[in-house]
User: Fold this.
Amino acid sequence: MGIVQRKDLSLAERLYLPEVVRGLSITFRKMFEKPMTRQYPEEPLPKTEVTRGQPRLVVKDDGNVACVSCGMCEAACPAYAITIDGGETERPIEREPVRFEIDMLRCILCGFCEEACPKDAIFMSDELELADSSRGALVYDLEMLKRPKAALQKRIDYVYRLNQRWRKSSSTS
Ligand code: SF4
Ligand code: SF4
Assistant:
């Protein structure tokens, strides 16, 4: 069996001086680089139409919510965050939600509800901030979820553009 020949360490190596110098040089270099941290909330996150914030319900130009309480989003939600009770209406759509709640503490901002909706009634907004002093206050009801269509228009246009790909490919297949 061979004997392992260990290298004799110099005094500097025994005192870890090369590592200390290398570490300090990195620290010194980083001091002059642009910081990567963000001073939130003074410096909010940039928001674009790709931003997937909390889901919101579309209110059409006639003032009615676009939702017909079909329950597709409720079924698609993997976090069981949505609760809907539908009611009858005299309008041509026949049904609308009398109760529409999203538990924002459960919501994982996945966007499945947006994808599942056959009526373009629910879209991911760019609203990201979420804070309150009780769990109950973070269960958003119908009134808290409603947004005028114009407020969600950028996201609506983006989703339409995305879905255009599938419309084209399905029309050619
Ligand atoms: S974004 Fe996802 S988790 Fe949140 S309500 Fe919609 S489907 Fe549920
Ligand atoms: S899928 Fe759309 S129309 Fe159906 S209940 Fe959900 S938001 Fe309303």
Q: What stands out?
A: Residues 67-73, 84, 116-117, 119, 121-122 surround iron/sulfur cluster (ligand 2) (CB under 6 Å). Residues 149-172 form the longest helix (24 residues). The mean pLDDT is 92.
